[in-house]
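Section handout, structural biology tutorial.
Before the tutorial, make sure you can parse a SMILES string by hand: atoms, branches in parentheses, ring closures as digits. In the record below the ligand is fe (ii) ion, and the chain has 286 residues. In the tutorial you will relate the predicted structure tokens back to the input. Do not try to memorize them.
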Amino acid sequence: MRTARGVGLGLRHEFAAELLRERPAEVEWLEVHPENYVQRGGLFAKLLADASGSYALLPHGLTLSLGSAEPFDAGYLRALRRFLTEIRAPFYSDHLCWSAVDGRCLHDLLPLPFIRDSIVLAASRIAQLQDALGIPVAVENISYYAHPGLARMSELDFFLEVLEKTHAKVLLDVNNVYVNSRNHGFDARAYLDRIPVDRVVQLHVAGHATQPDGTLIDTHAEPLAQDVLQLLEHVLARTPNTPILLERDGNYPSLATLCGELREIHAVVDRVHARSIPPGNEEVRA
Ligand SMILES: [Fe+2]
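Predicted structure of the complex:
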């Protein structure tokens, strides 16, 4: 069984054929959105079969809306569980947010009110989801631009309290921490230092755009920022073997350019690993 280790890339049809043909060394595993494959056949099923023949896959959901009050779709959860078993997923991740109402998916990851009622609701939904899927659920911290109503606590305290009330793992999005820290004025390193790294199972990095007024937008459509790579290095020092994904969801450059960004991430990983080897224990090479 393949295990996702090192640096991965999201499987996107824009470069899938070239990626699966060339198998560049920079890409060590792939992330897939189950929504693209569950209850779908044809080209999607073929792409998935080809990808799983060459790479370890990690699933990453976009639509389960962990903070919504509406019940999950039981039929979709059963199909999702079969899919996760098929790809031998070690965990399932989705965002700590809401993104659906009245049976409609908003295709946007919106912040929950940072209040106790939201914590109780999200914790109970995460527990239901873990029961339904039979594998751990990891929650991802989102980027947000405005808070709905009166915030009773910081986004970080909110996130940590949800963790405390569940057995959830963490998908830590370093770019989201950076974007939020700039837009809302907090110390990104201090935020990362409070994340319990024993719960972190995956890291995300991505590019963001800067608006004329200085607001950062989490677009996943720009090159990686050096500030985000520095933050990655900071958190990776505490959890050096966590798989890292480069998210790219638009304005696609060539695969060669994406591989250049992946090499920058590999360089960060190598530096962290070199520092974590005690002196005298370095690998001996001929
Ligand atoms: Fe992310």
